[in-house]
Amino acid sequence: MTTQRHDFNAAPFLLEELPWTPRFSLRVRPANRAALAQALGLTLPERIGQRATTGEAEALCLGPDEWLILTTEAQRDALAAAGAGAYAAIPHSLVEISDREITLRLSGPQALTALTAGCLRDVEAIATGTAARTLFDTATVVLWRDGADSFRMDVWRSFLPHVRAILDKITVELKTGL
Amino acid sequence: MSRYRIPGMGRVDPAKPVSFTFDGKPYTGLRGDTVASALLSHGVHLMGRSFKYHRPRGPVTAGSEEPNALIGTSRGPGRFEPNTRATVQELREGLQAESQNKFPSLKFDIGAVNDRAYMLFSAGFYYKTFMWPRSFWDKVYEPFIRAAAGLGKSPTEVDPDTYAHRNLHTDVLVVGGGAAGIQAALVAAKSGARVVLVDENPEMGGSLLSDPAVRIDGRGSWAWLAEQLSQLRAAGVTLMTRTTAIGYYHQNFVGLVERVTDHLDQPPSGAPRERMWHVRAGQVILAQGALEKPLVFDGNDRPGVMLAGAAQTYLNRYGVKVGDNAAVVTSHDSAWYAAFDLVDAGARVSAIADTRDHVRTDLVDAARKRGIEVLTSHTATATYGRLRVKAVRVNPVRHGQVGAGRKIACDVLLISGGWTPSLHLFSHTKGSLSWDAESRTFLPNHKTEACQIAGAGRGLWGYGPALEDGARAGLAAVEALGRTSEPLAARVEGDRPGTGAIQTELPTDRSAGKAKAFVDYQNDVTAKDIRLAVREGMRSIEHVKRYTTNGMATDQGKMSNINGLMIAADALGKEPPQVGLTTFRPPYTPTSFGAFAGYHKGATFELTRKTPIDPWAEANGAVFEPVSLWRRAWYFPKGTEDMHAAVARECRATRASAGMFDASTLGKIEVAGPDATEFMNRMYTNPWTKLAPGRCRYGLLLGEDGFIRDDGVIGRLSQDLFHVTTTTGGAARVLNMMEDYLQTEWPDLNVWLTSTTEQWATVAVNGPNARKVIAPLVEGLDLSDETFPHMSVAECTVAGLPARLFRISFTGELGFEINVPSRHGLALWKAIHQAGQPYDICPYGTETMHVLRAEKGYIIVGQDTDGTVTPQDAGLDWAVGKAKKDFVGKRSLQRPDIVAPNRKQLVGLLTEDGTKLEEGAQIVLDPNQTLPMTMAGHVTSSYDSTALGRPIAMAVITGGHGRMGETVHIPMPNGTVKATITSTNFYDPEGERLKA
């Protein structure tokens, strides 16, 4: 059953900007995935869209040889050092992109509806606990589904004013209940 | 209660009156009315004037196919809409409606003189009349035609409304909420599939709303409808009313437009007026029904002449009797039922004239029982009345001979030429049609998309067949999706089956050449026009259409296409499929620009990227310019400075002491991996093997064709790591190009690319005091020329922030570019601005950057190059690694055309009289040659240079490198400018200032 319908009683969604967190783009050949995961102390999921958490670090598979790693400030340097240490044996690229994107959280019963206003992809079909690289309006984003009504959206920093402005228009629209 | 409203009938709410005005006159309708039904309830049929002849017109339909009753509607400033269909616009409190194409008034219109000059305005009139003299076209004919053309008035004010957008994914989309569509949706929903049912009307039901007497499953059709709709809701089907499927595109992508607030008395603030839905459906079920055709005869457009089905709809759905005394002319059974409903509701129907020789006896009996005179084998040859029909003239037809005419008085004439399956959306998919010789109509044939067609849309008639076919289509759709469902049967009592005969224009005993027998009401095309087009050589329906404009109005020939085709085929003596059918194109009905724009309006019209330093620039009065998707600070005017003064001051300050510039928009790509050097060698023209870590090099990127695509300074941070910069506009393109080569040509290379454009904010500090400005902020690096010479890069700390520091220059001055993580960009900018105060540091924008680089002859890709400039042309052969085995574009650089000496080459230009040239101005070698002159090149960059005290320019000129010192000529509107060819390196040609 489709859940894209107007809910006149539900509050519009809640939109928050999440605090800065260290973030890396990891690239390695699929054959070296497991070995590098071990060296970095991470789980690197194999299927695109899958996520895996190890301690406080989370890895999202974005492509056959591409992962997005979220970690904590305390573990940031250790991760970079582990990468440097493993590099000679397992060539890879580990690039810090902590400042490239800003993350928004969209939650509440209308969060999904708000996203369908901008995402061409079938947002409903993104399973909880997975994520997808997609478009919101004309901006490339990574959309994480944390729950039925809870999403995170990583937006490139310079695109954020536009994305926020569109979301503001959608908020006003949803408040009218039409 | 208004004069023509019948108490107890219709789906309008008699307890809820709604006030509105039409041409300034107040009226009252009921909630649930359209503007048309409300006006008809007051006996008002005259609602507009036709486009070409300004003939008085009234509504001929009750739906979105209406060609005549087009009105202007308004709800306050900026909210005027022309060409609103009165048959679609729902009544709302205070609605202001006005008629169109009339002057001074709807009842007396001067433009109607065209009607009397009818014989002049035949098909091809414009083509034939406005040919000569040629010189009259621009000044006389075109302005006249433009002023006369067009329906309604264009709005002139900014639209204050908002528009919205949604994407929707569903398993099954059903278009059309009539009997077939409802059954299809229900069967599909029972399979567990996601189902969306859309209908353009304010409520679901389609023709069931106009046929309350039919009984389904033992209930009245309206009770049955209510039950089905509640079942659909319970099954989780999304029901969307007031929603038109406007286009059907590839891979089951369907565009919908939802009318959100046009029917509301007081729309809530912030509510969108319309919402565009982009639907991707696994299966589409088209249940759009059929559209009734008029009959074509003289005077078939007079107000009060209306499709029989429309009259039935006004009666049953709106409780409005369209007249007191009706006559009917038909070639289809359906009009008989409309007549019966009218009589049963208390109106008089004096006669039914049917073109057919034989009509079902049950219909004839039912008519006679109601006191209706039955006239079979009859034709209609004229109507009477000026602003409203008063009588129709009918004649018997015997063996092809039209007998004597007889006038039948009536205040409304119901006509029906049968029904055309609505194939518009199916045609959008390029699905093929086949001609059904028996029913003489086109039916859907070969499908190109995953769709089903159900009900009257594929030529079925009657509720029994439509319900059965809808259920079948629903089942077929879900089975195609790998699901199962139950068949659904419905029992119909009192069904209204029907057949009809297809006609050309009706036979007449009068001169056919003088008949105003309309085929296309909206474009005023008559049967005579179509026959004339054929006589004048048009053979294909596509040519007939364009010559006569038949079917080219906003209704896209919904009513006129088939009648036009039948007449053209008859004139050609061919079967209709041999003459062809014109293509239906989206949108199905006229669609507002707002619906297409959606949220892309005002501040969100286009995505605008902003740097972390943008807020400072805004607060400090920067004027911005768009650079690709970015907005960049253009210049920082002080006080009353204009751009020229501000740029001159910024240039002077930078060359005299220090300037600072937000370079954050430059593209940045991290190239990392054991094969990074090899990759760089293959991508860029320059050699990279010997570039030491900690050093930078200007990199030049070509396409396979050998032409310059991009450039930028590239720093080597370590053996396996390069920090590549690209042009602002080229960032995404360059990364894509690199990835393309890496994935398709060199998948063996162990190297990876990461976009870091937005990871880093970049501040450039230039000027003789640049080092002094930043030195106090820098930790962990000796900035002296000895240890950190020009073209160096290092990681260090600047203002307490982790930084990548480049010593590079795009100005010719001592220069540094400091990259820090973006979230610190603004802090870095402010720290440098503070530290630069003793040196009067000057923030500058992109215009000053352009001037300073031009003074040094540094190119800007896309300004001084245009995709046809090679490294040699640009004077950049020094950047090409000649000893390298290969790089992208290398082979092309050997082609004869590329090494030819007469190519356009980049040079400097200095004008003799000190005028500033215009960018884009064409250059000739000899100003006295005959016209047209041979262009030798054009100006690519031109600025006033403060440093040189005169304007400078760059240009590409044929064989320019070999013409140093020669004079060229730039012809301009107010005289020819002389200029001397020079080097592009205008300022500090020795480069001493870089080495400071």
TrEMBL record, chain A:
SUPFAM superfamilies: Folate-binding domain
Family matches, as Gene3D superfamilies: Heterotetrameric sarcosine oxidase, Probable tRNA modification gtpase trme, domain 1
Residue ranges that the Swiss-Prot or TrEMBL entry lists as coiled coil: none
Domain of life: Bacteria
Protein name, UniProt field: Sarcosine oxidase subunit gamma
Automatic annotation (TrEMBL), chain B:
Residue span of region Disordered: 58-79
Lineage: Bacteria, Pseudomonadati, Pseudomonadota, Alphaproteobacteria, Rhodobacterales
Keyword Oxidoreductase found: yes
Pfam families recorded: Fer2_4, GCV_T, GCV_T_C, Pyr_redox_2, SO_alpha_A3
Keyword line: Oxidoreductase
GO molecular function, one term: sarcosine oxidase activity
Residue ranges annotated for the SoxA A3 domain, each copy included: 515-598
Organism for this UniProt entry: Paracoccus tibetensis
Protein's UniProt name: Sarcosine oxidase subunit alpha
UniProt family annotation: Belongs to the GcvT family.
